[in-house]
Fold this sequence. Notes:
Number of strands: 8
CATH architecture: Alpha-Beta Barrel
Number of helices: 9
Radius of gyration: 17 Å
Low-confidence stretches: none
CATH superfamily: Aldolase class I
Bound molecules: 2-phosphoglycolic acid
Number of domains: 1
Amino acid sequence: MYILGNWKNSLSSEDSKKLAEALHTHINGRYHDINIVLFPDDTSIETVSLLFDSASMVKVGAQDGPLGSNTTLTGSISLPNFGKFCDYVLLGHSERRMLLGETDEMIAQKAALAIDVGVIPVICVNNGDGTKIDPYFDLKAQLESILDHIDSKSEFVIAYEPIDAIGTGIPADPEEVKNIAGIIHETSFISRNVKGSPYIPLLYGGSVNDKNIKSFLSLEGIDGVLVGNASLTADSFLRIIKKVSDPKYLK
Length: 251
Ligand code: PGA
């Protein structure tokens, strides 16, 4: 099971360090069945990653990745730093798709490069702008682009985050998430039905907190959550971790 904390650009480097230290104190040596991954901003990746060394169960990820190995790109994290300090990378978050116009091709390109340097992509997909006749058209297009570009033997994670649920305090309807999880797994299965193809874990994200987490983790086809606001304090993030460490929710 995966519990991911997306800190976005919400914390100063001092607060990121304090939060990481508090989580380190409470988590290290416990919760062996949960993949906990923290996504600090680029200025804090090194500090947070050095705190949780390679033996730690808590992993660290970047909030975005390099686009090409030989591309000089102002504003991007360098490939050596990326490979050195990150176990995971978030790609295709809808804030980046909408504000920066990131395309499915760019996201797939970054995912392939991350995989090449041993970083596991967590690729965010969403429900689109709701203007198409087929309500799942945008979601399927995003998925197909990823699946077409990534080698079928590669390991990666998908996070489904409906746009209206991000940062609003109003999560999606679990029944709808269950339905979408079915579509995502079916689409992935059809395109990656190759021997040796690893299972693609699927996460839900959007206004997850300790009160509603069980309604998502208990859904068939959901393997974890991507948490934004509720990952910004040790108290609220630890409340989530404690709740899901109940054996009933460990898948
Ligand atoms: P939220 O953010 O939990 O604050 O809705 C989730 C995300 O954007 O990944």
